[in-house]
Design a protein that fits this description.
The structure is a single chain. By secondary structure, this protein is mainly alpha-helical. It has one helix and no strands. The protein has one domain. Helix content is 95%, strand content 0%. The N and C termini lie far apart (55 Å).
């Protein structure tokens, strides 16, 4: 039973990481001017 569960969890991890990447990109696009102003201080 190990292999199917492993595959399913891998798929879930891949999907969630893609989703997280999308969210992170959106957040970075929204936050980047603020972050840049903070960085340049």
């Amino acid at each position: 039973w190990g292999a199917p569960v492993l595959l399913a969890s891998l798929l879930l991890i891949c999907k969630s990481s893609l989703f997280l990447k999308l969210v992170r990109d959106k957040l970075q696009n929204r936050m980047s001017p603020y972050l840049v102003s903070l960085w340049r201080g």
